[in-house]
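Handout, section 4.2: multi-component inputs.
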Amino acid sequence: MGLAKTEIFTDEQNQISVFAKAFGHPARVAILQHLFKIDTCFCGDLVKEIGLAQPTISQHLKELKYLGLIKGTVEGTSVCYCIDMDNWKEMKDIMTVFLGQDLLPKNECC
Amino acid sequence: MGLAKTEIFTDEQNQISVFAKAFGHPARVAILQHLFKIDTCFCGDLVKEIGLAQPTISQHLKELKYLGLIKGTVEGTSVCYCIDMDNWKEMKDIMTVFLGQDLLPKNECC
DNA sequence: CCATTTAATCGTTTTATTGCGATAAAATTA
DNA sequence: TAATTTTATCGCAATAAAACGATTAAATGG
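Output:
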């Protein structure tokens, strides 16, 4: 159906999957990496940096903004995007716990 | 188009997005969490644990196996699944670098 | 060999995602 | 005000993903 049955999963599981989905496209990974590297960035810069059309970049930015990972402030005719550090750290904490499950003691099986 | 233009991105960006996509569904998050908790697990156990049909679980297991995050060994009529620790750590290293970008010194902008 | 158990695969339906051309909106500049 | 710049939105086409019923495959037990 293309529709995940979110209601049968825990909030934590859904939250992890939502953040992971944001990183599930190389364009969004590239956008975030660029924002970290550059500190601040206009949408037009990203269009040049990444080789996708302007509406496509705008759409990816919208998704990242919806999740709170980035924020954009209008400056004249352009919009300045940057990482939302507080929300990034919150996301990172959640993902780090998930990724760090291998640190709990256990015996490998098969 | 529903088709990511992977060729315009770096190998690292594509790799991050591929792993992230694996965690982009709560069922796969739940499967991995359960495998970590239980050590070893049969497909049928996951069908009971998570509330999805057997073909659906089987499909999710196939994706996780394809990425190398889990491995399955046949035991009689059933298949025993568990985390592939080596590959998990490798994936974790890649994701940790990506998530840890906020640790590099920088000045917040907008 | 036949029934049973367990998991994988096939085929289909439904919804989501990607990408972009065309257009609109908003601010700036001439 | 008109032209320009920059970004957002709309609408569409193409592909991917999710879910599952039906079926197949593989091993075991009687």
